[in-house]
Amino acid sequence: MRYNDQFKKLDDVGFIGRGKSKHRPRNDESLYGGNYPFVQTGDVRKAEYYLTEYSQTYNDKGLAQSKLWNEGTLCITIAANIAETAVLGIKACFPDSIIGFIPDEEKADVRFIKYCLETYKIQMQSISQGATQDNLSLEKLRSINFSIPELKIQQDIAEVLYSYDKLIENNTKRISIHEQMAEQLYKEWFVRMRFPGYEKAKFVKGIPEGWFLKKAKSIFNINIGKTPPRSQPKWFTNNGQGTKWVSISDLSKSSLFVYSTNEEITSEGVARLNMRKAKRNTVILSFKLSVGKVAITACDMVTNEAIAHFNKSKDYGYVNKEYTYLYLKNFAYAELGNTSSIGIALNSKIIKDMPFVIPARELLEDFERIVLPLFNNIDQLNLQNNNLRKTRDLLLPRLISGKLQINTESKKLNQEANT
Question: β-strands 355-358, 212-215: how paired?
């Protein structure tokens, strides 16, 4: 096939249509709470490859004014998070801010189309810019000519790229299992109070003898982050030479560990503005906007003013990061501050004064011996995934453009992923 002949529109290789959400208002509670997954643009953006997680469901009434799309449908966002893609791993409904693509199996491989759209993301976002709100319409998407070679070439390219995503998916499942194991042990020992020797324990004011209930500031050295003035952009960088600066957005995208950030602060900015670093393996907590987001720093970092750093103190150094992370993750923050229609209102004083239960030292040490290997495995698996993503993203434009040919080594990787 000549290169000029392989440019096609999505309509040429499959069905393309908008999701449905006819009812107004869209947030009518009578539509929700049933058995039909309802995914939105944020769910597409968060998905690694397959979309299987969602925050809302439709009931029969909701389904009646929408449409149930089959597994294997490619979701393409056209509003809010524009040009994000994910393949449905479940049957689901979605609104008209998402476009569904179903390939003609004799003309297109849905995996290739997804990867192809990734290389066209900037172009799709650029034609979506509007005076008031960015939007990629169905008509605009239909007008784009994509580089889509013959099916066999699509499949070969898709196999190589998908092998990376499959390895990432397998690692992500293992990460989830490790996280669940650690959290279940925490709840068994420290929430349900079925820790080793609990049968003989004596309780005083709701906690076993030998445990302590103190304010967080009595247990930790708590620092609060800082945001440099936006009027002085010289302090911000993203060249990889500065100190990673964690925002609420970065924390929301992280799981157990936070590895990367959208922005960095220059070394001069950190020093001149007296920004306190959260050293590697520090537990950090958001207490404004998205309250209760918790993560552990994978390297030395600084944070914004809405994030607190829980540093170990000299007297309570045995309070390990694993227990601290799980305690903060499972804490009921609504009990601390005022609640309103927009969320929970907390400040640094409330966080420093929050109650913190400290189990007996021997029990904490036993807990750490069990969960530390789980946390270490999660760290290693996340690092593997980061490397896999980088390699995939380097290969992606070269394979899609045809500059890089499929070779024996790439096929071997795909076989290992399938194994």
Answer: antiparallel
DSSP label of 25: S
Contact of 304 with 245, CB cutoff 8 Å: yes
- Identify the pLDDT of residue 64: 96
**The tokens of 315 are what?**
């007297």
Residue 90 gets which letter from DSSP? S
94 φ, ψ to 5°?
-150, 155
What DSSP string describes 357-419?
Answer: EE--HHHHHHHHHHHHHHHHHHHHHHHHHHHHHHHHHHHHHHHHHTSS---HHHHHHHHHHH-
Tell me the per-residue pLDDT of 348-390, one tens digit each, with 9 for 90 and over. Answer: 999 999 999 999 999 999 999 999 999 999 999 999 999 999 9
Nearest Cα neighbor of 182 from 416, 367, 3, 348 is: 367
Q: What is the pLDDT of residues 249-299, one digit of tens each?
A: 999 888 899 999 999 999 999 999 999 999 999 999 999 988 999 999 999
Candidates 192, 190, 203, 213; CA nearest to 354 is: 213
Dist CA 43 CA 62 (whole Å): 18
The letter for the amino acid at 109 is D
pLDDT of 133 > 90? The answer is: no
* Backbone angle region of 410, left / alpha / beta, with phi > 0 → left and psi within -120 to 50 → alpha: alpha
